[in-house]
């Protein structure tokens, strides 16, 4: 290990784009459209909700593309929150993200991957202890692969992204090739409760935008992307654009294969859609696809998440060992180990149900930081008007303002859901705990920084954050 060893810029624009797509396309697209259809009330409104969600995602892509070029270093999102709102905000974000959001997602996604592999191979889910053991082994294996070198993690990401997109396009192809009369025969008679159209779309946007989320993770990899001022914006815009197009296509396919009521009433949406044409092998094929997609998301968590811990440690606000980079591998091995260990501890202590409840509450909290990051470009432009901005996206400041307002609207919409509101108490407690930890360790640093030369500015010859 070596404290001053910089992260290596080994990721191309294609690799970074795969990180964006892989972080967004998880297992949600195989299930979430059912909830969206039920809330929207009609086929047309369901597609409209996905279209509006895609538009908001593109606004976010433009906003984050400019921010990514502004802070092209490891853990860039942490730097943005720190410089825009103060050190406490950045600290709380990283601690909550690492100990709850990322660790919880890593654990749950590992369980989803194991369950679907078991269904694909044996036709049934394994026992709880065997499932837990396999999930822990999977987390350790992926962590070791990412510790071995950033190229290993990138290769896994690239491969799983290809499989994910191929699977979703295959679902669309099935819908295109199937006969309309055959599709109508499989539509169910489920009739969900109807909301007012405006209320239905507003409610449906919550699960829609949660399914679109994840492109911010490439900002955490800014220290390892070649020519980041150019490649980070390209990867974010290209990745989000691809996902929006594929999501719109696959949602049309679901509705074409099952009808609106069939989609709204399905508990195994992708499997039900494929079973319309391929009843025998379709379900196992989808189980394989979900397992691969979950594996890709698991890899994305352990590829990107440790860079936030690394950035916080290099900034002098976390244990110094987490800011170290392996001398020969060029990876933040201690940070990767801590995130993997946190996921395993959550799995063992809380169990699958407990971790899932934690994530339900933290999702709302994570949305707050998402909105804050989007609005950070406005705050930084005001506080540091003369700071160099390598990329200026069209529509500033309207685009980031619209994105921030949209995300705040999603937070309000989520809060109106009693299930999410109850679980949000867990997330609020997590934030309070992180803030108390900050007050204990860095009470004098709670006040915002005095405006001056932008702290986002890169130090000459430095590829990492300066401690």
Characterise this structure:
The protein is mostly helical.
What Rg, in angstroms, do the CA atoms define?
A: 22 Å
Report the CATH architecture. Answer: Up-down Bundle
How many strand elements? 0
- Which CATH class is shown? Mainly Alpha
Largest sheet: none
Average residue pLDDT: 81
% residues in beta strands: under 5%
The count of domains is 1
Approximate helicity band: over 70%
Structural class by SSE content = mainly alpha
Query: So how many helices?
Result: 16
Q: What's the end-to-end separation, in Å?
A: 16 Å
- One letter per element, helices H and strands E, the order comes to HHHHHHHHHHHHHHHH
CATH superfamily: Amino acid/polyamine transporter I
Would you give the CATH topology? Answer: Amino acid/polyamine transporter I
Membrane topology: Multi-pass membrane protein
Transmembrane segments: 16-33, 45-65, 129-149, 161-179, 199-220, 232-254, 285-310, 331-352, 358-381, 393-416, 422-440
InterPro entries: AA/rel_permease1, AminoAcid_Transporter
Keywords: Membrane, Transmembrane, Transmembrane helix
